[in-house]
Amino acid sequence: MSTETADGGNGGTVTVTQAAASEALDLIESEGLDTDQAGLRLFVQQGGCAGLSYGMRFDHEPELDDAVIEQHGLRVFVDPASRNYVGGSTLQYEGGLQGAGFHVENPNVVSECGCGESFRT
């Protein structure tokens, strides 16, 4: 298991904004999970009209082969297959009139579907 950065296909890392970390930590604590061990899993899966989509969930602890990114007190777990797609990305939290949620700003994306739910690299 590596720590601090998750290298992607472009050699970049995953960055977590302060707002995303704060929101995720609040949610993890509200689930009754230990923030010293638990974290947010960021993964890429097949699906959507553009071919790939992001997934996120809370996990109690990382898997042995996960990269573990620790920023602003949040632990983010990224599996080896997903690292190839998310290197150089920034995990953000956006709020506003149109709704609030987590967003991955990924420089590896060459196209997205019209609704922004899936992508292609």
From TrEMBL:
Domain Core as annotated: residue spans: 14-117
SUPFAM superfamilies: HesB-like domain (SSF89360)
Any GO MF annotation of the entry: 4 iron, 4 sulfur cluster binding
Coiled coil: none
One BP term from GO: iron-sulfur cluster assembly
Cited Pfam families: Fe-S_biosyn (PF01521)
NCBIfam families for the chain: iron-sulfur cluster assembly accessory protein (TIGR00049)
PANTHER family: IRON-SULFUR CLUSTER ASSEMBLY 2 HOMOLOG, MITOCHONDRIAL
Listed name of the protein: Core domain-containing protein
Protein source organism: Halobellus salinus
Gene for this chain: sufA
